[in-house]
C-alpha cells in the first residue's frame, strides 16, 4: 500500500479558451515528481455537473445522487488534499468552481487546500484566492498559507507559445507542496484517529 497522499488537482474554470489546464498540468506534474502524492487531475469541464441542483443531489439528502454527481464525489472523497487552480473572473472565482464546491460537504471536510491563481491584472487572481479562503472554512476545509499567483499571465509567452514564468515559480511550488504534504498527513492522521464532530 502506498504511503503517498491522494492529491486532487482541480481545474476550476470551464469557459472556452481557458488557460487553466496549463498551470494545472504544471503543478500536477510537479506534485507527481515531489514524491509525497498520487495525483488525480480533476477537470470540472469533464465532470459536467448538472446546473440544476435537485433534491436527489443535495449533500444533506439521503439516497443515491445522480451519476455525474456521484462520480465527482468519489474522486473528492478519495483525496487527502487539494490544489485548486483557478482564474479570477470579475474580482472573484468562476461560477463553475463555486457550483462544484457547493454540491458537496463531507468530501471537503478536514482536508487542506492549496491555491494556484492567475488573472489579467497585477493581482494575479488573488481576489479569487481571498474569496476561496472565506468559502472553504465553512466546509471545515483548511487553506494553507503558501499560494502561487500568475499576474498578467498573457504577457509571458515566447514565440512558440510556451509560458515563460513557470521556472521562476518552481521554488515557491516546492514550498507549497511541502506545506501541503505536512498538513495533508496531519489531517489524514486526525481523520483516522477520530471522526470530525458534526457542526450541527
List the helices and strands and how they pair.
Blueprint (H helix, E strand, L loop, with lengths): L4 E7 L9 H14 L2 E7 H4 L19 H12 L2 E7 L7 H9 L8 E8 L6 H10 L6 E10 L14 H28 L7
Parallel strand pairs: 1-2, 1-3, 3-4, 4-5
Helix pairs in contact: 1-6
N-C termini distance: 35 Å
Q: How much is the average pLDDT?
A: 93
CATH superfamily, please?
A: Flavodoxin domain
Predict the CATH topology: Rossmann fold
Q: In what range is the share of β-strand residues?
A: 15-25%
Helix content: 25-40%
Number of helices: 6
Biggest sheet statistics: 5 strands, parallel
CATH architecture: 3-Layer(aba) Sandwich
Low-confidence stretches: none
**Class inferred from helices and paired strands:** alpha/beta
- How many E-type strands? 5
Evaluate the radius of gyration. Answer: 17 Å
Describe the structure.
With 200 residues, the protein is α/β, with parallel strands linked by helices. The protein has one domain: 3-Layer(aba) Sandwich (Rossmann fold), CATH 3.40.50. The protein is built from 6 helices and 5 strands. Strands 2-1-3-4-5 form a 5-stranded parallel sheet, sandwiched between helices. Helix 1 packs across helix 6. The longest helix has 28 residues. This is NAD(P)H-dependent oxidoreductase. One of its GO terms (cellular component) is cytosol. It holds the Pfam family FMN_red.
Briefly summarize what is shown:
GO terms for molecular function: FMN binding; oxidoreductase activity. The protein is an alpha/beta fold.
Amino acid at each position: 500500500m502506498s504511503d503517498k497522499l491522494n492529491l486532487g488537482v482541480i481545474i476550476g474554470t470551464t469557459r472556452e479558451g481557458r488557460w487553466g489546464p496549463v498551470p494545472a498540468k504544471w503543478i500536477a506534474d510537479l506534485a507527481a515528481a515531489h514524491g509525497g502524492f498520487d495525483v488525480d487531475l480533476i477537470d470540472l469541464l469533464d465532470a459536467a455537473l448538472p446546473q440544476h441542483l435537485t433534491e436527489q443531489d443535495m449533500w444533506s439528502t439521503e439516497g443515491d445522487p445522480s451519476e455525474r454527481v456521484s462520480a465527482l464525489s468519489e474522486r473528492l472523497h478519495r483525496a487527502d488534499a487539494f490544489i485548486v487552480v483557478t482564474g479570477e473572473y470579475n474580482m472573484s472565482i468562476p461560477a463553475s468552481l463555486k457550483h462544484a464546491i457547493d454540491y458537496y460537504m463531507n468530501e471537503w471536510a478536514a482536508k487542506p487546500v492549496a491555491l494556484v491563481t492567475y488573472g489579467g491584472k497585477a493581482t494575479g487572481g488573488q481576489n479569487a484566492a481571498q474569496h476561496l479562503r472565506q468559502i472553504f472554512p465553512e466546509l471545515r476545509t483548511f487553506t494553507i498559507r503558501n499560494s502561487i499567483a500568475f499576474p498578467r499571465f498573457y504577457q509571458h509567452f515566447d514565440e512558440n507559445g510556451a509560458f515563460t514564468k513557470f521556472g521562476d515559480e518552481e521554488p515557491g511550488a516546492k514550498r507549497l507542496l511541502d506545506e501541503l504534504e505536512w498538513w495533508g498527513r496531519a489531517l489524514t492522521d486526525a481523520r483516522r484517529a477520530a471522526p470530525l464532530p458534526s457542526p450541527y
